[in-house]
Each structure stands twice: as structure tokens, then as C-alpha cells.
Inverse folding.
């Protein structure tokens, strides 16, 4: 039997979708990129089933795509979905559905939606739900549940998914009757996308989906006590501006909340107005241009020396939408010992959670930054301006002496850093890059220049291996006219690469760069540094045995497979992948196994102990040590 080519598969998928919906997915770029309000397009009451009410609610909420897999408990919902304008993408594993919804949400700013059945279908969503919770991603997960009389009886495929996900959702619902469905869906979308974004679970018993009901829109939301504070207190803003005007060594510590709030333009104005150095966390890359002179880079465990030093020696840290996590602070009681802290966050629970705060500011980052600009302008007009000349002299000296770099492998193998650096340079700053977790994630954060917001997607808080391929799929669905590259490791790639079959059949031409070092690279790096090079269970066999052969695997999944094993072929291999736009592409970059991620602050140690390279500690001025 002749296998259909990826081009044929992609063409067939597009043709099938066009027959079902003449607008096709190519029109997605024209759709709105902000979450839809629930009170739109009022409709008169209509007799439907609970499942029909669910699908009609999704349509009223302007949902254009959902990712999921049908099963017994959720099956009633799939019948009205068959006739809906909502596009359903059939994934190969529920984890793929969750990560795809996350990637879609991160790329578009809309709410991502995934669907699964009860029991194992729902529990397979736990990892992507936790991932979205840690990274504050607006996602709604809809799960089927066994019929109400069977709940609590250990029925077939029963799991208390509401209880299981209670600690990892912003809120969750168990729908008790069909009349509640429109209101619950509207509330779920509002909760997921407002305030601090996060995942919301909606669990619906099968008999509720089958029950007759009426559908009308809009529903009345019933969320007593849920009033996120958007505008900061003026007194706190004025105090923050006063501290900024008087600081000698200030730093703007920027987290992912700035991206969530759409506050990147304001951030740039604030930074340029004050001249204060900027550091952007792993979740905030692209919030401030990497190429900007005031950008010190990423702080934390694998951050730049200048960024780590800047925070550590600051006398004022202005934290905007960041949470002082352990990967940034290192040993917490030694972090930035001389710094006063202004901490602005929309979630009051984050303020003071890890670090004492001198000026707490609760509010949306966009409003906070805009009001800080106004308050700083008042300070400047009164002649109160910080002199940061000496501070910049120190920081520039560190940037010059300890730039990001790497050594070519001594054994002549392909350098993973070179591959990723050239990928960023050839593809350009308009593309979206999606990373898995591990060494390749850190190299992608270091050696690709992020100039624009929402062009870097990764699993930062949970550190989920297997995130990249399905998240890239979701991002490409949400941004079909944007080039989307996943930078994945050979370990991560083997966890969720089955979603490439989904991409091939659905006409989603993502591009995957597998950084194949034959090992679980980051774990191997720790074994090298901390376990006397005892490499216990980290070799994967993708080098020694070429199992799996990633080129053959890509072809088996309906993709184009390429391989690159030397530096001379890197550019032309990337260029070849860029020429293919009607099928997914996988490049197996076979790289050396001994490359490490530097700089590094070892877990549990102080940021003062940062290592620029193996056995190389930065030399600071004596007064600064």
C-alpha cells in the first residue's frame, strides 16, 4: 500500500474542513485576539439537550477551536459538535489536548479549550492543567463525568477529577443540572481570562449532557466576591516612584504578568524614562527587546552574569508581574540582601509570599506601569532623578567580561548552542518559538533573540517534558500565518511526538528542531557536576542505536524528516525546512552529548556563587563580593 504524502494529507484535511466550513482555518488570522465577553449575541430560549447547550455556549463565547478526544461520558457532547462551527481537533492523547490549548492561549491571548472523557481521559489532563496553573494560562478544560446516580460508586471510568484538580485550578465546577451549563461556561471563561489568568475545569455528568433543557444567551454570572483589583492604590504608586527616583542601583524585575496584561509598550516607556536596567524572567522573554541596551538578560539559575549580579547587588527591585520563584532567587535568605522591594502583582497572594515587600502594589500590570510612568514624570519634573552612571558602569563591565557564549565541542561533534543560535538568526524575530524542558530550553532562552511579545512559549513553572510539540500545534492553529518552531530534546520529543500525526492530518505545518544529544541532557549535566559522572539511566539510545530513528519516525507520522550532523549543513537544513509550508517538518540535529548550560547557579546555593563556566566564577570588584 502506498503511503499518502504529507502534501496529500494536508491538502485533504484542508479540503475536508473547507467543505464543512467555507471560511476554513486560513481565516483565523482575522478573528479577534482578545477574550470574548459572555454577553454577546443575545438569543431566545431554545429547546436543546445539555450537550447542545454546551456546544451553543461555546459558540456564543466565540470559541473557534477545541482540542480533545471523545469517550463514553463525554460522547453526548460530540453529537451536536458534529454540526457546529467550532472546529474540533482530534488529538492522540489528552495530554496533547491540554498542552495544545495552552499553546493556543499563549500565542493568541484567547482562552484555550480542551475536552476529555471521564476517568483516565480526565486524569490525562492533570499535567497540562497543572502546567497552565503554574504559568497562569487561561484555559478551560471540559470533562465528561459518569451519570449522577453513579458518582461515588467507583463506576467504570469514574474519577473525582474535581477533587483531583482542586489544588491546580483557579476554580472548578461539577455541573449538577443542564440548566446551569450556559452560566457555568460563561463563568469559567470569565474566571480563566480575568484577573490572574489560570485553568478552570468544568466537569459534566453524562446524564446532564443527555437531559433536555433550554438554551438562552447571555446568562447572568453569579460570582460573589470575585472582584480582581485592576487599578493600583495611588499612594503606593507615589511611594514606588519616590524610591525609584532616589535609588542608586535599581532593577526592573519583569515577569510573565507583564505579557499577560499586554503591558509591553508601557514597560519600554517606563524603562527608557527612568534609565533603569531591566531583567526578564524565563516566562517574560520578549516582554522587553533582547537587543535593547537596557536589557541585562534573564536572571536566575541559568541567567546572565549581569542579570544575576544586578538583582543581587540592587538597592531597589521593582518587581512587575513576577513571583520571586526559587529559580530566580537561589537561596532565598541570601537573595538581594540590600534591596528594598516594590512588588506589583494582580494576585495579592503573591505579594510577600517569598520575599518581604516594602511597597506592595495590587493591580493589573498595564495599569500599574501606566500610573508609575505618570508618577515618575512628576518626580522628574520636580528635579528628583536618580543618577545611575556608576551602576551602569558596573553592569556594562560585567556584560563585556561575561557575555553569553559557548565552547565548540572538543570531539568535533555538532554544537547544540550553534544550532539554536543559527535557528534564531535564520528564522527571525517574527516567528514563535516553543521549547520543551531541559538543556535545549535554556539554550533557546539564551541564544535566540526575542524582540517581540508572545514569541516565546515554554513550560516555566512546572517544567513539563513533552510540552513543546502539542503546544506548538496549538500555537500554529491560533496563528496560522506565523512560522512556529518547536525546539525539543530527544527525551521530551519521545513523550508527545504522536501529536505530529494530528498535525499531518489536520494540515498544521509546525516545524520541530530535535536537539538530539542521545541523553536526558540536563539530568546528565547534574550527574556530571554533582554525582561524580555516574550516568545512571540517562542514556536514551538515540545516538548509539538510533532508536528511534527520528527521520523514519517523522515520516511514519506523516511529516517530512530531515537530519543534520555537522555545522556545515546547519544553515541549508534549516532553510530547507523553511521552504516546506504544507506539512510538518522534523529535523534531527545530532549534537554532542557533553555540552552544558552556563552560567549556572547550583540549586540551593546563593546567587553570589554563580559560575560563568565550569570551575570559572566571575570576578567582581572586591567591594561587591
Amino acid at each position: 500500500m502506498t503511503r499518502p504524502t504529507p502534501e496529500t494529507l494536508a491538502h485533504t484535511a484542508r479540503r475536508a474542513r473547507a467543505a464543512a466550513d467555507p471560511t476554513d482555518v486560513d481565516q483565523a488570522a482575522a478573528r479577534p485576539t482578545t477574550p470574548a465577553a459572555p454577553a454577546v449575541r443575545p438569543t431566545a430560549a431554545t429547546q436543546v439537550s445539555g450537550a447542545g447547550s454546551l456546544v451553543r455556549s461555546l459558540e456564543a463565547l466565540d470559541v473557534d477551536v477545541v482540542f480533545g478526544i471523545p469517550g463514553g461520558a463525554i460522547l453526548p457532547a460530540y453529537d451536536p459538535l458534529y454540526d457546529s462551527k467550532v472546529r474540533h481537533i482530534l488529538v492522540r492523547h489528552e495530554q496533547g489536548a491540554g498542552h495544545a490549548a495552552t499553546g493556543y492561549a499563549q500565542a493568541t491571548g484567547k482562552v484555550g479549550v480542551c475536552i476529555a472523557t471521564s476517568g483516565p481521559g480526565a486524569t490525562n489532563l492533570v499535567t497540562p492543567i497543572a502546567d497552565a496553573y503554574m504559568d497562569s494560562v487561561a484555559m478551560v478544560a471540559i470533562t465528561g463525568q459518569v451519570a449522577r446516580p453513579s458518582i461515588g460508586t467507583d463506576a467504570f471510568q469514574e474519577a473525582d477529577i474535581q477533587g483531583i484538580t482542586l489544588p491546580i485550578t483557579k476554580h472548578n465546577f461539577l455541573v449538577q443540572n443542564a440548566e446551569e451549563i450556559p452560566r457555568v461556561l460563561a463563568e469559567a471563561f470569565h474566571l480563566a481570562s480575568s484577573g490572574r489568568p489560570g485553568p478552570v475545569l468544568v466537569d459534566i455528568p453524562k446524564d446532564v449532557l443527555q437531559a433536555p433543557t433550554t438554551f438562552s444567551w447571555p446568562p447572568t454570572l453569579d460570582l460573589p466576591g470575585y472582584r480582581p483589583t485592576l487599578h493600583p492604590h495611588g499612594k503606593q504608586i507615589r511611594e514606588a516612584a519616590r524610591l525609584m527616583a532616589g535609588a542608586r542601583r535599581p532593577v526592573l524585575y519583569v515577569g510573565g504578568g507583564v505579557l499577560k496584561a499586554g503591558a509591553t509598550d508601557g514597560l519600554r516607556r517606563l524603562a527608557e524614562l527612568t534609565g533603569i536596567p531591566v531583567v526578564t524572567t524565563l516566562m517574560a522573554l520578549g516582554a522587553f527587546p533582547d537587543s535593547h541596551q537596557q536589557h541585562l538578560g534573564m536572571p536566575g539559575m541559568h541567567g546572565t552574569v549581569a542579570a544575576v549580579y544586578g538583582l543581587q547587588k540592587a538597592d531597589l527591585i521593582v518587581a512587575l508581574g513576577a513571583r520571586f520563584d526559587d529559580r530566580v532567587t537561589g537561596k532565598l535568605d541570601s537573595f538581594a540582601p540590600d534591596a528594598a522591594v516594590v512588588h506589583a502583582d494582580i494576585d495579592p497572594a503573591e505579594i510577600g509570599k517569598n520575599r518581604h515587600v516594602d511597597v506592595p502594589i495590587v493591580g493589573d500590570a498595564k495599569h500599574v506601569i501606566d500610573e508609575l510612568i505618570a508618577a515618575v514624570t512628576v518626580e522628574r519634573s520636580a528635579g528628583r532623578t536618580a543618577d545611575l552612571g556608576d551602576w551602569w558602569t558596573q553592569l556594562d563591565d560585567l556584560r563585556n567580561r561575561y557575555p553569553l557564549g559557548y565552547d565548540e565541542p572538543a570531539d568535533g561533534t555538532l554544537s547544540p548552542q550553534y544550532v539554536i543560535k543559527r535557528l534564531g538568526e535564520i528564522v527571525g524575530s517574527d516567528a514563535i518559538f516553543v521549547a520543551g524542558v531541559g538543556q535545549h530550553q535554556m539554550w533557546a532562552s539564551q541564544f535566540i533573540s526575542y524582540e517581540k511579545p508572545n514569541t516565546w512559549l515554554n513550560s516555566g513553572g512546572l517544567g513539563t517534558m513533552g510540552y513543546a510539540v502539542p503546544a506548538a500545534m496549538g500555537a500554529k492553529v491560533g496563528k496560522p500565518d506565523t512560522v512556529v518552531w518547536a525546539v525539543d530534546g530527544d527525551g521530551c520529543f519521545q513523550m508527545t511526538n504522536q501529536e505530529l500525526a494530528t498535525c499531518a492530518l489536520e494540515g498544521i505545518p509546525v516545524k520541530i528542531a530535535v536537539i538530539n544529544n542521545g541523553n536526558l541532557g540536563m539530568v546528565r549535566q547534574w550527574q556530571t557536576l554533582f554525582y561524580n559522572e555516574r550516568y545512571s539511566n540517562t542514556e536514551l539510545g538515540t545516538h548509539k542505536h538510533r532508536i528511534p530513528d527520528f527521520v523514519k519516525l517523522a515520516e511514519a507520522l506523516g511529516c517530512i524528516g530531515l537530519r543534520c550532523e555537522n555545522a556545515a549543513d546547519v544553515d541549508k537544513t534549516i532553510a530547507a525546512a523553511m521552504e516546506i509550508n504544507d506539512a510538518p517538518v522534523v529535523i534531527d540535529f545530532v549534537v554532542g552529548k557533553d555540552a552544558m548550560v552556563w552560567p549556572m547557579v547550583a540549586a540551593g546555593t546563593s546567587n553570589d556563587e554563580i559560575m560563568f563556566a565550569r570551575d570559572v566564577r566571575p570576578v567582581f570588584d572586591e567591594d561587591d563580593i
Remarks:
- Residues 1-39 have pLDDT under 50 and may be disordered.
- The longest helix spans residues 365-381.
- The radius of gyration is 25 Å.
